[in-house]
Amino acid sequence: SEESLKVTMGDVVIADGNDRFIPRDGAIYAYSGDGSCKTWKLPDDFKGASLEVYTLTREGRAPAPKHVLSRDTIELALDAGAPVKLMKA
Known about the structure:
Distance between the termini: 38 Å
Order of helices and strands: EEEEEEEEEE
Oligomer: single chain
Largest sheet: 7 strands, antiparallel
């Protein structure tokens, strides 16, 4: 629809509706305004890498959301309003 947002960086989607998957400074930050479960294509420098995944809170790191990592993608179950950080392990 005209009100839907989709932003890509090459073949990597970084914004889809109210969801974000933003590579920045050697990490990826994921966020969902409404909560979602979707598969995101990883940027080239993250493909095949072992990743640390955790939720960010005011108190620091919290356990990772449910996720499934493959060589080229990650499926993330994001809670509404809970930012997540992905870093190479």
